[in-house]
């Protein structure tokens, strides 16, 4: 890489990401309604999302740290049930509404641009109990909530509708690792992905119709899929099908506003294998098509890639939620199985560390949808069991992880990709959905007893990159 190629564009956003439920705390107070996670975590009794990183009270300190460390963009999400406690109440909760005004004002005063997501895994419990996005009511309620937020917060100019529709459906309907999770229901997974994309489309159309300034898009969790053996037809097919499920289905709905024949064939076949069928209403498809050209930006959350082998056995998934390496298993009937590669390192949670996958992904999007001009890496980061030693956290591995992903991002930019920014997951240590607090991603270490923030070595390194707009090698 030449000196010039190691330089970031002058308006590149050096961001960091958070999500309401994972950092705010005050999950059932100040008028906030319940989300499905509340009862689920209570029942499990393993960990609580209260007070998590206490962002509800400590956001001024976190934003001060952003400013101090050159982080000029922050991803935050609005907790839907802080605004509408039951998802669709006649009157919003004024305390919740006021909280986000204060938060956005603080962002402005610190020169940190807020990138705001409307739904980050936290559907209000009342809607969840009715079937979440498998029920039309959630779609209607989401559009109403989105309209309310667009009108209420003109100070926000970067909006994302959903965070990781794929993660929602895979955890709820395939792996069964989230509240009231079902397993191996690919029919429900595809149906919910479609319905959430319709809700997204309706929010995009509302944004357009109301003439709000700024940009709107969606954040997708994307992973590049590779055949374990590129010469084996079965492995190639496994990678293709898994790509449709994880990437192609959602990307087509976003960019094309329709599904290709190949995608529909695959979705219908997998739904039938799971014993169900998909229902796409004509008006849904009209809304997808109408909204597609009004997507201004796309957020890419990239953590890992997958190598697949052909697989004939029964469904067999096991999620590593302990950090005990080698315990993850993902094999789906009709698709394939994920395999480890000895030459590719993995985190303690078995997430494959493959920075080139980010480049391959971005370039694939640029090739398939060349008109798309505003891409962000909205999440990327590495979990580890960080230890505070004599007031410091030496997280060399995280620095290496971020550096290598930025290097591949720069290569994509040099080759014409319109990547406008990068957000480290996460700004500070936060609550992790299946893992609680032993899986840390933050640039800032949080002592969960005292809520003290301590900059890790990665925070100092990232600050230098942001300040110099240059990637050291
Ligand atoms: C992304 C989510 O999928 O990955 C975050 O947007 C999440 O909310 C992050 O925390 C890491 O996942 P986990 O399970 O390791 O916390």
UniProtKB/TrEMBL annotation:
Active-site residues, as the UniProt record annotates them:
379
Q: Output the Gene Ontology terms for molecular function.
A: 6-phospho-beta-galactosidase activity; beta-glucosidase activity
Q: Which InterPro entries match?
A: 6P-beta-galactosidase, GH, Glyco_hydro_1, Glyco_hydro_1_AS
Q: What class of enzyme is it?
A: hydrolase
Q: Give the record's keywords alphabetically.
A: Glycosidase, Hydrolase
Top-level taxon of origin: Bacteria
**What processes in GO biological process is this protein linked to?**
lactose catabolic process via tagatose-6-phosphate
What's in the GO CC field? cytosol
EC number(s) of the enzyme? 3.2.1.21
Per the record, the similarity remark reads: Belongs to the glycosyl hydrolase 1 family.
List the PANTHER family hit by this protein, alphabetically. Answer: GLYCOSYL HYDROLASE (PTHR10353), LP05116P (PTHR10353:SF36)
Protein name, UniProt field: beta-glucosidase
Q: Which organism is it from?
A: Olsenella profusa F0195
Its taxonomic placement starts with: Bacteria, Bacillati, Actinomycetota, Coriobacteriia, Coriobacteriales
């Amino acid at each position: 890489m030449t000196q010039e190629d190691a330089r970031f564009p002058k308006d590149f956003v050096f961001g960091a990401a958070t999500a309401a439920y994972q950092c705010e705390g005050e999950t059932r107070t100040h008028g906030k309604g319940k989300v499905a996670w509340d009862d689920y975590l209570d029942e499990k009794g393993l960990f609580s999302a209260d007070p998590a990183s206490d962002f509800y009270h400590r956001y001024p300190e976190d934003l001060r740290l952003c400013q101090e460390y050159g982080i000029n963009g922050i991803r935050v999400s609005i907790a839907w049930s802080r605004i509408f406690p039951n998802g669709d109440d006649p009157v919003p909760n004024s305390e919740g509404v006021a909280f986000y005004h204060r938060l956005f004002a603080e962002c402005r005063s610190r020169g940190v641009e807020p990138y705001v997501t409307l739904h980050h895994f936290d559907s209000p419990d009342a809607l969840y109990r009715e079937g979440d996005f498998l029920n039309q009511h959630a779609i209607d309620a989401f559009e109403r909530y989105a309209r309310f937020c667009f009108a209420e917060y003109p100070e926000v100019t970067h909006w994302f509708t959903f965070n990781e529709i794929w993660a929602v459906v895979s955890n709820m309907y395939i792996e069964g690792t989230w509240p009231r999770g079902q397993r191996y229901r690919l029919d429900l997974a595809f149906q919910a992905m479609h319905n959430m994309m319709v809700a997204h489309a309706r929010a995009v159309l509302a944004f357009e119709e109301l003439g709000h300034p700024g940009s709107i898009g969606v954040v997708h969790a994307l992973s590049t899929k590779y055949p374990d053996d590129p010469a084996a037809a079965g492995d190639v097919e496994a990678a293709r099908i898994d790509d449709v499920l994880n990437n192609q289905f959602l990307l087509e709905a976003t960019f094309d506003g329709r599904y290709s024949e190949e995608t529909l064939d695959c979705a219908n076949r997998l739904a039938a294998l799971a014993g169900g069928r998909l229902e796409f209403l004509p008006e849904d498809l009209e809304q997808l098509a109408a909204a597609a050209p009004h997507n201004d930006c796309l957020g890419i959350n990239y953590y890992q890639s997958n190598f697949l082998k052909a697989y004939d056995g029964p469904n067999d998934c096991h999620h590593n939620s302990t950090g005990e390496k080698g315990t993850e298993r993902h094999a789906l009937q009709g698709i394939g199985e994920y395999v480890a590669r000895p030459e590719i390192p993995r985190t303690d949670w078995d997430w494959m560390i493959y920075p080139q996958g980010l480049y391959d992904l971005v370039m694939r999007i640029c090739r398939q949808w060349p008109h798309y001009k505003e891409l962000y890496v909205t999440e990327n980061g590495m979990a580890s069991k960080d230890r505070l030693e004599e007031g410091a956290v030496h997280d060399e591995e995280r620095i290496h992880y971020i550096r290598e992903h930025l290097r591949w991002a720069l290569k994509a930019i040099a080759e014409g990709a319109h990547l406008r920014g990068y957000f480290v997951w996460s700004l500070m240590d936060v609550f992790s959905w299946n893992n609680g607090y032993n899986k840390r991603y933050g640039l800032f270490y949080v002592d969960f007893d005292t809520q003290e923030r301590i900059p890790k070595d990665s925070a100092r390194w990232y600050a230098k990159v942001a300040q110099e707009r240059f990637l050291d090698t």
